Fold this sequence. Notes:
Elements: H1 2-16, E1 21-26, H2 29-35, H3 47-57, E2 62-67, H4 74-85, H5 122-130, H6 139-149, E3 152-155, E4 158-162, E5 168-171, H7 174-185, H8 195-205, E6 207-208, H9 212-222
Parallel strand pairs: 1-2, 5-6
Antiparallel strand pairs: 3-4, 4-5
Helix pairs in contact: 1-3, 8-9
Domain RNase H type-1: 1-81
Pfam family, one: RVT_3
GO molecular function, one term: RNA-DNA hybrid ribonuclease activity
Amino acid sequence: MAEYEACILKIIMEIAMNIKELLVIRDSDQLIHQVQGEWSTRNVKILPYMRCVKELCKKFTKIDFKHVPRIQNTFIDALATLSSMIQHPDKNYIDPIEVEIRDQHAYCFYVDEEPNGKAWYLDIKKFLATREYLENATNGQNRALRRLENQMFLNGEALYRRTPDLGLLRYVDATEATRLLEEIHVGTCGPHMNGFTLAKKILIAGYFWGTMESDSIRYVQKCHRC
Length: 226
């Protein structure tokens, strides 16, 4: 599954760069043959990854997959060796990513709209400001707030999210999100960018909200000039 995750992340990066023709080179013959339909699998843990790759492939005019054994991929091996020799400053600490595999399906839910007109991040912001938990909150919800605390930074009324490269993204509410979509989309090459590119530009500008990617895709689809 790690091979699939790495492949998916790389393809998403190429989509954000508006690449139309792509050659994917991987050292996993299993991944290559499964994506091309030459091999099948009944592993319920792999099937969602495989479907995700196939859906992403539809966004290219041409995409090919090529298997290159690791022993023959000397250039990538040399780059990996060089990167392992680089000494990073101790102060640039990046939190490790913990991945847990469950035997049962997990279902995610997030709010597309802000209830009562309040910002979707209001609970997190209130906890950082007052150090008080929400009323009637469960122990699990309180633990989630404590975990999020390490990723957040409150500066006055502005709430920021720390990124792995030690940058900051400012959280915005629905009203400001709509304004950002309009302003960034009307910029240079705006009518020619896809939803993923628009979301990427908003990130580069230093802003974030939970449904940013899906909102960007819907906004581009409704634009008559795109």
